[in-house]
Amino acid sequence: MDIARTPSSPDGNTVMADAAPTPHEPPVIRREDYKPFEWLVPEVSLDFDLGLGSTRVVATLSVAPNAKADPSTTIRLNGDGLEPLAVQVDGEIVSDWSMDGYDLIIPLTGEGHELRVTTQISPAANSALMGLFASNGMLCTQCEAEGFRRITFFPDRPDVLSTYRVRMSGLKAHFPVLLSNGNLEAQGEGEDGTHWAEWHDPWPKPSYLFALVAGDLVANSDSFTTMSGREVALNIYVRDGDLPRTGHAMESLKKSMRWDEKVFGREYDLDLFNIVAVSDFNMGAMENKGLNVFNTKYVLADPDTATDGDFDGVEGVIAHEYFHNWSGNRVTCRDWFQLSLKEGFTVLRDQLFSQDMGSEPVKRIEDVRVLRGAQFPEDSGPLAHPIRPDSYREISNFYTATIYNKGAEVIRMMRSMCGEERFRAGTDLYFDRHDGEAATCEDFVKAIEDGAELDLEQFRLWYSQAGTPKVSVRLEHDGDTATLHLSQDVPPTPGQPEKQPMPIPLRIALFDRESGKHDGEQLITLTKAQDSFSFEGFATKPVLSINRGFSAPVVIERDIAQDDLVFLAAHDDDPFARYEALQDLVVGHLKDVIDGNLDDSERDTGRQAIAAAISAVLDDEHIDDLMRGEMLLLPSEGYLAETMLVADPGAIHEARQGLRAYLGTQLEEAWKALHQRASSVPFSHDAEARGARKVKTHALAYLAAGDVDGVQELAWEQYSSADNMTDRQGALMVLCNLDGPERTRALLDFYNRYKDNALVIDKWFSLQSMSLHPNAIEHVKALADHPQFTLKNPNRVRSLYMGFAVNPQAFHDASGEGYRMIADLILQLDPINPQTAARFVTPLGRWRRIEPKRSALMKAELEQIAAAGDLSRDTSEQVSRSLG
Ligand code: PHE
Ligand code: ZN
């Protein structure tokens, strides 16, 4: 293709790009203001002249009036920090364009045209990692949500779908591999050591799914035969030395492809599927059509450098991005308010996949823990928003646990209400009806409603109302009738003071205490503010098991005797409900301790009941170690704080640690026996061996909490004899909390062993920042000056500072030092990488729910940030919402 390359500077125009002011309060974008774009852009052709320091882009757009929109005499092409070096309309250079802020406005008559715009960008200077950026000498793009406008001028919105042709050329020595979406159509050698490649993607897509990668990469190559017999070439591209760590990702990819065919009837639609791993990435991974780009963290894994959890993470994220090919790419989003349309649904799909690949109940418990740890606090704090938000200022701030995880829960509820088969009929209809379109959440709900024959009229409230419903539960027994009294309350959230009752599907069972059995599970749906449900044939009062499998993402407040919780913790045949009973038992006890409700003997009685329940879990032969490991985990300090209106992090920490120490000493022999049994299981990836590794470190951690004799030696023994990262990291985590020569010795050994592996060094940073060691704050300060620390790499930043922000003891240090460190980080990081910086506002934003002294310190830090001025849109939005 012959694309004009000479820039010409147009006369009579002021290029505003550099001078454009950053408005202090960025404008609010509203869902209700949606209008279709005035122009269609059926075809795009991009020509890249690649260089790390400078890359030239020539974009050619075919445009035509959109019959479904108002006619217009101009076209607005979004840009972000770009300068138009040349603008052509129908082959002629024009100069009547203008800039509106960063956007390029070109006058156009109301018929089809060809636009051509030349821009020049500096990938090496792009530290925000949005648009085209450099990472370890390679070039890579990230366009979701609004990164394409940092590459070229374009209607950068998801409802403009185009087919893309991409030509790129660059020095062969620097960029031996040249990739983009779709199929490779031609390649060849150029002058002066350059080469070029031309890619074509036949599937129309929005700009956020565009991708380009150029670099010195090697591939793990394989293939997959689809259900209709088409062969798809698969490649996972990594840097040379990383190839041996790509096997698990490849297996995960093939399993995902097969599973999506079998469970959702979705077949892959190109002859090629490429994955590229990059070490500098803001998120986990990105589903660009045919060219997924991944954070190395979710590709690379081998037993020596990755834990069992890391292996699961790779499998889950590979599946997630692959599943987006249908839920996201073939059917995309009309606008960014519909983000949960692709993300909530795709998270549900990856959760169901992982449930099928491993242990279903354990996966469910893990997913609920994530929801409670990240989404519940969001839903009860200043950043609360519905899964389909009504407004935003910076869309990057809405890639949240609410959109993703609560979004998945909402769709999971639909599935529970109609059953798997009808749900599948609903999703089939959805894909069929909206294939090739940019759809809305409403389109999804309607398709499930029609396809699954489910009335979702009232259910739509789950899309519009924020806040986690609280359900109060009381079981009454009279004669032979048990009556369940339920009431719901959806708390007020920012902008939504009043709420309507929502339909809440609850799976329940009523146990006979004598036999330990029930007559089958039922699904009841609470649709009103209050309701009662009667069950006959109970001569004695049954024990209620409710929200089994976590059938609804709500907080259950049950009026239940401690004995009944002990009964359920031992006998419930729903693994989640069993886990939950034990959690509730512990939460109830710890809250009593924190509130000072118990005298010494009452406290001991409570502790003994918990120790007995845990001891029963340790002895239970009917559960496997993976499940046992879940049951042994006490509710986190964050979760405990979430159950209180105003939390005192110091008191929570003390009470929880006190209980751990008690359990450590009280059950010392059992922990030692468990540790020994688990240590004798040889390494493998099967469930038994993974379970053994999980309980092994739990046992060690309890022994350490109890400070029992010889625990340092035992931890060192586990550390030094480990033949896999799960055991080694587990032991190092325990040692990190202690104060002794083994700690230093292990940290030094770990560093020297893995100093060339960035992902493992991330673990080394985060283990220290998450440590219970009394000097954790000082350690984090010292680590910030470590030669391997850099603010330029998001994984490294997160490993040190997210670890620290979720370390309640250190972050909530009464001096306020922890708050100050996070505020300083935000200010330092904001000019480098606003997206990542803004994510650190959340922990400080919890100030309203923290006891007054700390609360004031947290708020003061937020005010300090707000006063700094010149903040990014990302950070300023989060800070003002957090203070508002
Ligand atoms: N769409 C990606 C995913 O969830 C997440 C992402 C968003 C990645 C924005 C990069 C930037 O799969
Ligand atoms: Zn996603």
TrEMBL record:
<keyword id="KW-0378">Hydrolase</keyword>
<dbReference type="Pfam" id="PF17432">
    <property type="entry name" value="DUF3458_C"/>
</dbReference>
<dbReference type="Pfam" id="PF11940">
    <property type="entry name" value="DUF3458"/>
</dbReference>
<feature type="region of interest" description="Disordered">
    <location>
        <begin position="1"/>
        <end position="29"/>
    </location>
</feature>
<keyword id="KW-0479">Metal-binding</keyword>
<feature type="domain" description="Aminopeptidase N-like N-terminal">
    <location>
        <begin position="112"/>
        <end position="209"/>
    </location>
</feature>
<dbReference type="InterPro" id="IPR027268">
    <property type="entry name" value="Peptidase_M4/M1_CTD_sf"/>
</dbReference>
<keyword id="KW-0482">Metalloprotease</keyword>
<feature type="domain" description="Peptidase M1 alanyl aminopeptidase Ig-like fold">
    <location>
        <begin position="467"/>
        <end position="558"/>
    </location>
</feature>
<feature type="domain" description="Peptidase M1 membrane alanine aminopeptidase">
    <location>
        <begin position="249"/>
        <end position="459"/>
    </location>
</feature>
<dbReference type="InterPro" id="IPR001930">
    <property type="entry name" value="Peptidase_M1"/>
</dbReference>
<dbReference type="Pfam" id="PF17900">
    <property type="entry name" value="Peptidase_M1_N"/>
</dbReference>
<dbReference type="InterPro" id="IPR014782">
    <property type="entry name" value="Peptidase_M1_dom"/>
</dbReference>
<feature type="domain" description="Peptidase M1 alanyl aminopeptidase C-terminal">
    <location>
        <begin position="563"/>
        <end position="883"/>
    </location>
</feature>
<keyword id="KW-0862">Zinc</keyword>
<dbReference type="InterPro" id="IPR038438">
    <property type="entry name" value="PepN_Ig-like_sf"/>
</dbReference>
<dbReference type="Pfam" id="PF01433">
    <property type="entry name" value="Peptidase_M1"/>
</dbReference>
<keyword id="KW-0645">Protease</keyword>
<dbReference type="InterPro" id="IPR035414">
    <property type="entry name" value="Peptidase_M1_pepN_Ig-like"/>
</dbReference>
<dbReference type="InterPro" id="IPR037144">
    <property type="entry name" value="Peptidase_M1_pepN_C_sf"/>
</dbReference>
<dbReference type="InterPro" id="IPR045357">
    <property type="entry name" value="Aminopeptidase_N-like_N"/>
</dbReference>
<comment type="similarity">
    <text>Belongs to the peptidase M1 family.</text>
</comment>
<protein>
    <recommendedName>
        <fullName>Aminopeptidase N</fullName>
        <ecNumber>3.4.11.2</ecNumber>
    </recommendedName>
</protein>
<dbReference type="InterPro" id="IPR012779">
    <property type="entry name" value="Peptidase_M1_pepN"/>
</dbReference>
<dbReference type="InterPro" id="IPR042097">
    <property type="entry name" value="Aminopeptidase_N-like_N_sf"/>
</dbReference>
<dbReference type="InterPro" id="IPR024601">
    <property type="entry name" value="Peptidase_M1_pepN_C"/>
</dbReference>
<dbReference type="GO" id="GO:0004177">
    <property type="term" value="F:aminopeptidase activity"/>
</dbReference>
<feature type="compositionally biased region" description="Polar residues">
    <location>
        <begin position="1"/>
        <end position="12"/>
    </location>
</feature>
<keyword id="KW-0031">Aminopeptidase</keyword>
